[in-house]
Amino acid sequence: MRLIVNADDFGLTESVSRGIIKGMQEGIITDTTMLTNTRHFDRSIDLAKEAGIEAMGVHLNLTLLKPLLVSGKVKSIVDNKGSFYRKPSLIPSTFHKEEVRAELRAQIEKFLSSGLTLTHIDTHHGFSVVHAEMFQIIIELSKEYRVPMRKDDALTDDPSIKYQLAESGVKTTDVLYVDFSVPMLQESALLGMIAKYKQTNTTVEIPCHPGFVDDELRTISSLNDKREEDLQLLLRQEWFGYMKEQGVELIPFSQL
Fold first, then answer.
1. What is the CATH number that goes with domain 2-255?
2. When you count CB atoms within 10 A of the terminal residue's CB, does the N or C end of the chain come out lower?
3. pTM higher than 0.90 for the full model?
């Protein structure tokens, strides 16, 4: 099997970015995706470049902080304070597709302006599956920028969304391995996933949320102290030998 260990939320805070970089340099994190609408974007880009990281994905976002575009241009997806709704379920079903597309494209273009290479796209809080039309926008952006996307159809039972991705021709993994019963990555999940797919040609993505924690993170994210638990799990050096024994190849999205 081939395994992508993908760290979400690069750029959320400088401490989160530093933690992810440590996990990529010393642990089994193989890829990451960046939030582009935080005040830590520029510093996080600098940290990545200093660490020799030349490519990553974009963590498309409609549920945290404010949009990149002025709120008047994206009225259908922001609240009366001009901020994104905090949960995908709160995004109005009357959202305008062109507003969503314009904002998400702006996020990708901001990332590309950094000089880093775009490897893939995924979505913060899995907002892509709130509606089939929303999912179609993500597919279209994957095609436009010629990059893979996360297999978000695993987050829903909607058959129309599953059909969309299957018929799109967009590159993705065979499996998105998530456990909704726990908020963070567990050792048992990693071991179970390897046991299930080690004798196959399956390509699996397992998302994670590692990072160092500071006071700012605690004010903006419900996932805070547990991020350091994620990081410590992914830094265990014994994973390298174990995965080699099990025939697991660690890869980034660029190798799909």
1. 3.20.20.370
2. C
3. yes
